[in-house]
């Protein structure tokens, strides 16, 4: 398939873990991920889990919001994008690709204005401002 499918699978996992930390593993067979894409998704999920500072980084760029106020989908998309950009240098995509993929997931899975919010936050986080 593609990295997009891998990111969508990772989003499903993060979303389910956010709602129920004791959740069972999600079956990825329906997505027909290649071994390479499954490994990429697993690396993304692991990166988010291992780097708790991702929450602080995102939170420091939220204006008039706290991380706990964000809906679970938007928060999970932001975490995946930040994890890929900062912690997966050896297999990450270009900055613009990461932001674009996050925006597209926001359009597909988020609320009406999620994609604009995700775009703005990621631009600030990745610029380091």
Structure description:
With 129 residues, the chain is an all-alpha fold. It is built from 6 helices and no strands. Helix 4 (72-87) runs antiparallel to helix 5 (95-109). The radius of gyration is 14 Å and the shape is globular. The mean pLDDT is 89.
List the helices and strands and how they pair.
Blueprint: H1 3-19, H2 35-50, H3 53-59, H4 72-87, H5 95-109, H6 114-127
Instruction: Output the structural class.
Output: mainly alpha
Number of strands: 0
Radius of gyration equals 14 Å
- Based on Cα principal axes, name the global outline: globular
Q: How far is the N terminus from the C terminus? A: 35 Å
What share of residues are in beta strands? under 5%
Instruction: Pick out the low-confidence regions.
Output: none
Sheet with the most strands?
none
Kindly state the percentage of residues in helix.
55-70%
Tell me the series of helices and strands, N- to C-terminal: HHHHHH
Mean pLDDT, as a whole number?
89
**Count of helical regions:** 6
Oligomer: single chain
Keywords summarizing the entry:
66% helix, mainly alpha, 129 residues
Care to give the gist of this entry?
Helices cover 66% and strands 0% of the residues. It is mostly helical and 129 residues long.
């Amino acid at each position: 398939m593609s990295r997009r499918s891998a990111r969508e699978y990772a989003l499903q996992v993060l979303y389910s873990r956010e709602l129920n930390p004791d959740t069972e593993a999600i079956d990825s067979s329906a997505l027909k991920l290649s071994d390479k894409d499954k490994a990429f998704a697993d690396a993304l999920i692991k990166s988010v889990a291992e780097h708790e500072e991702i929450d602080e980084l995102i939170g420091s760029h939220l204006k008039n919001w706290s991380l706990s106020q964000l809906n679970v989908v938007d928060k999970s998309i932001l975490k995946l994008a930040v994890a890929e950009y900062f912690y997966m240098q050896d297999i990450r995509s270009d900055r613009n690709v990461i932001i674009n993929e996050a925006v597209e997931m926001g359009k597909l899975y988020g609320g009406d204005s999620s994609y604009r919010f995700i775009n703005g936050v990621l631009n600030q986080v990745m610029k380091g401002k």
